[in-house]
């Protein structure tokens, strides 16, 4: 028997950062995101020899352990261990023997929600294997708790829900970790046009998102007025971009991305590096009307709205700066799991 799952990465179109505690707990958050055809994959093969094998192919890391109820968290594929530990604690209540293999279509630190999407995919694989009675909200919340509570990894709430539900979603975040996912019905021609006009650019750098997110959290805790006001405006941006998308007024999105970019930089120091500022201005000079730093900032992917046929000049200008453009399409499916007989 072989159990597989995949979950899509996401592009955060607007509102990013308003899903991070303590801001979302104090003021509520709003996010607009859309999943793309880049995935995190997990494969589980049950074993009968009392061993656990964890293998992250893209990291070239592989570890073997005796099967126990709790694996030690020690900087060796802790993400995978944390998921296993929670599955045993909450569901199986006994040690399991298996081989878990994972890989992701984008590197860690890219700003596309790779870590949370991988957690979601692995939880989905365990749910498929053990026939766990978990709905979409249950899986997303469990993935969130594993990262933020069990492993104490700084971050927001949107990625686990995007990976689980898939598609274009307007998400609202409330106190007590309450989340409401509102799927948007967008015509396929509009999504195709949006994908054509949004150029996804890999700056060929990565960052540790937790470092920037911790600064953002501290600014809220310290009642930094400029940072909090910036987050208020980022939250408003999510509503405005949602309305533009539903009304099929796509060319408004460029100016709304510009609006959000100016406020995002004020949320925490280090979000926009000098190199990223230079890349942003290069895209604008070539014809883009706005852009966004994907994820927490500091590196990874950026994307730019390029109306008409301006994408070609923008791509040429960006690639001259180093990095590369990533081709993608929007997807409508979220987490998918399946079992095959071996």
Note down, in words, how this protein is organized:
The mean pLDDT is about 95. The strands form 2 sheets. Strands 1, 2, 3, 4, 5, 6, 7 and 12 form an 8-stranded mixed beta sheet that branches. The protein folds into 2 domains: about 1-185, Ribosomal Protein S5, domain 2, CATH 3.30.230.10; about 190-325, Alpha-Beta Plaits (2-Layer Sandwich). It is built from 11 helices and 12 strands. It has helices spanning about 25, 80-90, 115-130, 135-150, 160-165, 190-195, 210-220, 225-245, 250-265, 275-285, 310-320, and strands at about 1-15, 30-45, 50-55, 60-65, 100-105, 170-175, 180-185, 200, 290-295, 300-305, 325, 335-340. A hairpin with a 7-residue loop joins strand 9 (about 290-295) and strand 10 (about 300-305). The longest helix is centred in the last third of the chain and has 22 residues, at about 225-245. The protein is α+β, with helices and mostly antiparallel strands.
Portion of residues within helices:
40-55%
User: What is the structural class?
Assistant: alpha+beta
Mean pLDDT metric? 93
What is the gyration radius calculated from CA atoms? 20 Å
As residue ranges, the low-confidence spans are none
Order of helices and strands: EHEEEHEHHHEEHEHHHHEEHEE
Total separate domains: 2
Summarize the structure.
The protein is an alpha+beta fold and 342 residues long.
Defining traits:
342 residues; Ribosomal Protein S5, domain 2; eight-stranded mixed sheet; four-stranded antiparallel sheet; 11 helices; 12 strands; 41% helix
């Amino acid at each position: 028997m072989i159990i597989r799952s995949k979950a899509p990465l996401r592009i955060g179109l607007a509102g990013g950062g308003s899903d991070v505690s303590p801001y979302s707990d104090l003021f509520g958050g709003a996010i607009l995101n859309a999943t793309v055809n880049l995935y995190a994959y997990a494969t589980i093969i049950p074993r009968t020899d009392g061993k656990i094998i964890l293998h992250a192919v893209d990291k070239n890391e592989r570890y073997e352990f005796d099967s126990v109820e709790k694996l030690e968290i020690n900087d060796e594929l802790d993400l995978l261990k944390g998921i296993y530990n929670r599955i045993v604690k909450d569901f199986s209540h006994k040690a399991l023997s298996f081989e878990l293999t994972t890989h992701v279509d984008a590197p860690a630190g890219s700003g596309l929600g790779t870590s949370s999407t991988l957690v979601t995919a692995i939880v989905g694989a365990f749910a498929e294997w053990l026939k766990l009675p978990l709905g979409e909200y249950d899986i997303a919340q469990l993935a969130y708790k594993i990262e933020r509570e069990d492993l104490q990894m700084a971050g927001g709430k949107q990625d686990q829900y995007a990976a689980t539900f898939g598609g274009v979603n307007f998400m609202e975040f409330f106190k007590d970790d309450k989340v409401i996912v509102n799927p948007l019905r967008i015509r396929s021609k509009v999504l195709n046009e949006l994908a054509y006009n949004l150029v996804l650019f890999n700056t060929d750098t990565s960052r540790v998102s937790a470092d920037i997110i911790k600064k953002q959290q501290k600014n809220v805790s310290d009642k930094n007025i400029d940072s909090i006001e910036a987050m208020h405006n980022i939250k408003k941006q999510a509503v405005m971009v949602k309305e533009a998308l539903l009304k099929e007024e796509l060319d408004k999105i460029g100016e709304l991305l510009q609006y959000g970019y100016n406020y995002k930089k004020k949320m925490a120091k280090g979000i926009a590096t000098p190199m990223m500022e230079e890349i942003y201005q290069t895209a604008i000079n070539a014809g883009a009307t706005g852009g966004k730093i994907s994820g927490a900032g500091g590196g990874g992917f950026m994307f730019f709205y390029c109306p008409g046929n301006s994408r070609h000049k923008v791509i040429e200008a960006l690639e001259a700066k180093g990095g590369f453009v990533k081709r993608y399409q929007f997807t409508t499916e979220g987490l998918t799991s399946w079992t095959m007989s071996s």
